[in-house]
Design goal:
It is built from 28 helices and 34 strands. By secondary structure, the protein is an alpha/beta fold. The chain has 4 domains: 166 residues, Aconitase, Domain 2; 119 residues, Aconitase, domain 3 (2-Layer Sandwich); 190 residues, Aconitase, domain 3 (2-Layer Sandwich), CATH 3.30.499; 222 residues, Aconitase, domain 4.
Length: 763
């Protein structure tokens, strides 16, 4: 099904795979050489957007930006504080996360009002609630061949439409709004070679999960560009390609790009943008840093079990494994929870020879596509989803799709069968909609199944879970009233009626004001929209106190700052920070606040007893012979967290900014799960340290970590930070590193955060 080819590989004429050791490569070394990496589609697009010299250190400017209503308020607030004049490129604000305005009083709608007023003032594009989820709107109206788009949502992926799109934290969008660049070392490019064609009943989520299973745990494509090539692409519709593409975020890749053809051209033409098409192919001889070979004919109906999209089985395998396999899956899943006494009750869901689920949901940028929903309608049409516990809901990802499904009768088939059809909304993808019952299991064609992504609250003793599946198998399961059923095992008409795009919902409701900024138009602030706190520059030395030590293999951004209902507080940095690590280390907030109060006192010129004791601890351990008063002038105190591999998942900058608001000064890790989380740490002025596993064992909660000359080391040429782990009983030297940082990133950290960096530049 999926084969990994590590190391270098050449692709000849887009179809022939040649290893560097093959005789063909040896005999034709003039073609098969080290410069062949320049023949990838990814390289060509990146270089077309490169603003600096050379091709190693990239300084990218994007063609468009996009954000949703969990992130855009903070981004615009940061940009305003940094000197924003107008939106220099198209910036699309969608309202697909807090769409329902269901919790938090007026908070959600206040933010929507702010967003509309901001695009009027600065010249942007505003998509009202219920009209489209962020990525479907961008596919329909903005993506085009050869473009690059930056979004503040991690699933910003339009590679199947020839657009290299990247999901990043908000500060990276701020840089683009201020005319700056996205700075990154040129990423590796991994070929995703597709061959064959999918069988009846196999959908895009099945292919995506098969790839995810093969590449996530080993980091095969981490921070790389996944370049989709091979003859199998021609067998896939555009919706099928889009459905695979958006799920690549879960592999931790940086971006994607696909070979384009007449199918791509047809999609763009249908959507009124034929000029956005051009054929993209790798050159005659293209070099890749590795290859993932996918035989589409062998892909089966897949299911990702709790609590990660890489925890993948075939549906057949899960049903045949019975209670024993489910008990094993539950044991591994519960190990990822802090409360080991909770039960998912997965074995109890096996009876009558099959696993049974409580919900089926098709939703969002991965599930709510036209062809997915038509396929579901073809399966359930004329049947019933039952009147017992099982519930089946469908969310078309845009109003144009909803309109076409209404016109061609697909909605009639769905609704007559007992399906609940809703408007465009991302809630079920991040824990703000369709929360199951306690111990419930929901089968979803959505993007993620991390803990709490279904909306439960394990800290309160409530636990439910999500399994990811393709829409076709979810519909097959629905007509069996929740009994898990692969779509390949049922007979249905998989004919997809031609899609007719009607943009009237957008023409009549979207505010399109790019290049029409109105400075006289007032920006409207609701009472919950708060400015960022002031942040001090990095001092000569820093004394870190470990407020949380997380020894899990991977820590998601959802664990650093929960999704779901907490997102209603995203425009108030202080209120949102109260939830930081609340589901992982509930004591973290109070511990961090204690350290923050010590630093606040130091900045005000007083030295509380606890701070004096900390300085004396350093004095004694390091034989400094300095007065407490002298240390206080040159040594800031801040909290830090240690985690083995933090930052998997969402691009939400709040995973880092909440730590900063609480007085955080650094993260320490063995590695960072994603580039975007590390960027968030940097842009909020925290030091993104990495260390060795041996040194990590010397650190514990409540330890102090003394970093002398931290500012000079940061701005110097070495990457070896001498640090000392200190408490009343020990002093152990460790070495910390930052890895590659551009000069600008160093300056951002030195000045305290991105806002400070721009403020000093503008003065």
């Amino acid at each position: 099904m999926v084969t990994l080819i590590p190391g270098g590989v050449y692709l000849y004429n887009g179809t022939q795979i040649i290893l560097p050791t093959d005789s063909t490569a040896q005999e034709h070394s003039n073609q098969f050489n080290t410069d062949a990496y320049k023949a990838t589609m990814a390289y060509q697009i990146m270089m077309n957007h490169q603003t600096a010299d050379g091709d190693t250190n990239l300084r990218i400017k994007f063609d468009a930006l996009t954000s949703h209503d969990i992130t855009y308020v903070g981004i615009i607030q940061t940009a305003i504080a940094s000197g924003l004049d107008k939106f220099p490129i198209p910036y699309v604000l969608t309202n697909c996360h807090n769409t329902l305005a269901a919790v938090g009083g007026t908070i959600n709608e206040d933010d929507h009002v702010f967003g509309l007023s901001a695009v009027k003032h600065f010249g942007g594009i505003y998509v009202p609630p219920h009209l489209a989820v962020i990525h479907q709107y961008m596919r329909e109206t903005m993506a085009g061949c050869g473009k690059m788009i930056l979004g503040s949502d991690s699933h910003t992926r339009y590679g199947a439409l020839g657009t290299m799109a990247i999901g990043e934290g908000g500060p990276e969008l701020v840089k683009q709004l201020l005319g700056r660049t996205y700075d990154i070392q040129r990423p590796k490019v991994i070929a995703i070679y597709l061959e064959g064609s999918p069988r009846h009943g196999v959908g895009p989520q099945d292919v995506a999960l098969a790839i995810e299973k093969a590449v996530f745990q080993n980091g095969f494509v981490k921070n790389c560009v996944m370049e989709f090539v091979g003859p199998g692409i021609a067998s896939l519709s555009q919706d099928f390609r889009n459905g695979i593409d958006v799920m690549t975020t879960e592999t931790t890749c940086l971006s994607t790009i696909w070979r384009t053809d007449d199918i791509t051209k047809q999609f763009l033409t249908i959507h009124g943008r034929p000029n956005d098409y051009k054929e993209l192919n790798p050159g005659t001889v293209a070099y890749y840093d590795g290859m993932v070979k996918v035989d589409l004919t062998k892909v089966e109906n897949m299911i990702a079990m709790p609590f990660h999209p890489s925890n993948v089985y075939t549906i057949k395998e899960l049903n045949e494994g019975g209670k024993e396999l489910l008990a094993h899956i539950e044991h591994e899943a519960v190990e990822k929870l802090d409360n080991k006494n909770l039960r998912l009750q997965l074995p109890e869901k096996y009876f009558d020879g099959k696993v049974h689920v409580d919900q089926g949901i098709i939703v969002g940028c991965s599930g709510g596509l036209y062809e997915n929903i038509v396929a579901a309608a073809n399966i359930v049409g004329g049947k019933s989803v039952g009147n017992d516990r099982f519930a089946f809901s469908v969310y078309p990802s845009s109003q144009p799709i909803y309109l076409e499904l209404m016109k061609n009768g697909a909605l009639v088939d769905l609704m007559e069968a007992g399906t609940i059809v809703r408007t465009a909304f991302c809630g079920p993808c991040f824990g703000a909609g369709d929360t199951p019952n306690n111990s419930g299991l929901s089968a979803r064609h959505a993007t993620r199944n991390f803990p709490n992504r279904e909306g439960s609250k394990p800290g309160n003793g409530q636990i439910a879970s999500v399994a990811l599946m393709d829409a076709r198998s979810i519909a097959a399961t629905a007509i069996h009233h929740g009994a898990l059923t692969p779509a390949t095992e049922i007979d249905y008409d998989d004919t997809i009626p031609e899609y007719h795009y009607d943009n009237k919902p957008y023409m009549n409701k979207v505010y399109s004001g790019f290049q029409a900024a109105n400075k006289d138009s007032e920006i409207i602030y609701g009472p919950s929209i708060k400015a960022w706190p002031s942040i001090e520059a990095l001092n000569d030395n820093i004394l870190l106190k470990v407020a949380a030590y997380i020894d899990d293999p991977v820590t998601t951004t959802d664990e650093l700052i929960p999704s779901g209902e907490t997102s209603s507080y995203r425009s108030d940095p202080y209120a949102l920070s109260e939830f930081a690590l609340s589901r992982k280390v509930p004591e973290y907030v109070s511990r961090a606040k204690e350290v923050r109060e010590l630093e606040k006192a130091r900045q005000e010129g007083t030295i509380p007893d606890e701070l004096a004791q900390a300085y004396e601890l350093v004095n004694t351990a390091m034989n400094l012979e300095q007065s407490v008063e002298s240390l206080a002038k040159t040594t800031s105190v801040a909290s830090t967290i240690y985690a083995n591999k933090p930052g998997d998942g969402s691009a939400r900058e709040q995973a880092a900014s909440c730590q900063r608001v609480l007085g955080g000064g650094a993260n320490i890790a063995l590695e960072y799960a994603t580039k975007r989380y590390r960027s968030n740490v940097i842009n909020w002025g925290m030091l993104p340290f990495v260390t060795s596993a041996e040194d990590a064992k010397k650190i514990d909660t409540f330890d102090y970590i003394w970093l002398p000359n931290v500012r000079n080391t940061l701005l110097g040429t070495t990457d070896n930070f001498d640090a000392y782990v200190i408490n009343t009983n020990k002093k152990e030297k460790i070495t910390l590193h930052l890895g590659y940082l551009s000069d600008e990133e160093k300056d951002i950290i030195a000045k305290g955060c991105l806002i400070n960096y721009y403020a000093t530049e503008n003065n």
